[in-house]
Amino acid sequence: MSDTEPHVAETLEDLPDMTDLLSRSGLEFMQDILSGKLSGPPIGATMGFELTSVEKGRVVFSGTPEFHVTNPMRGVHGGWYGTLLDSCMACALMTMLQKGQHYTTLEYKVNITRAIPLGTRVDGIGQVSHAGRRTGVSTGEIRGAEDGKLYATASTTCLIMSADG
After folding, report:
1. Burial group, residue 82, by CB count within 10 angstroms (0-12, 13-18, 19+)
2. pTM
3. Which residues, in sequence order, are bridge partners of residue 67?
């Protein structure tokens, strides 16, 4: 597998391990996934989105919801919105962490403002509001990639942990 093209893990062994994670700052970790030095998790491929931008305090995932993420009412399932937003908000927080730190999502809230038409390319934009010693808070938006139309907003709180306890 090339180390210059982004790629998705196909087995647990392909995923970065804790040494990969803890030996880098969170920003370096996310940049290494974007560049292809580390494999990305399969959730994005499963759901139809990918990491497209990483900077300190801000991450963008882009994707297009298709038929496989519809609900019984023929629309995009709310879980798709939540998964995209959880990914961009939590990964934005990841960019603020120091070597030896990692996080987990404690809670998130999604507000869907309008339905995303199937086949519409969107960006999930996560932005850090606060990165403290033990908790972090991020906000997110889903916007149309072409027209900037707002489809959803969200917020999250994450627990920040250190490898040394």
Report:
1. middle
2. 0.93
3. none
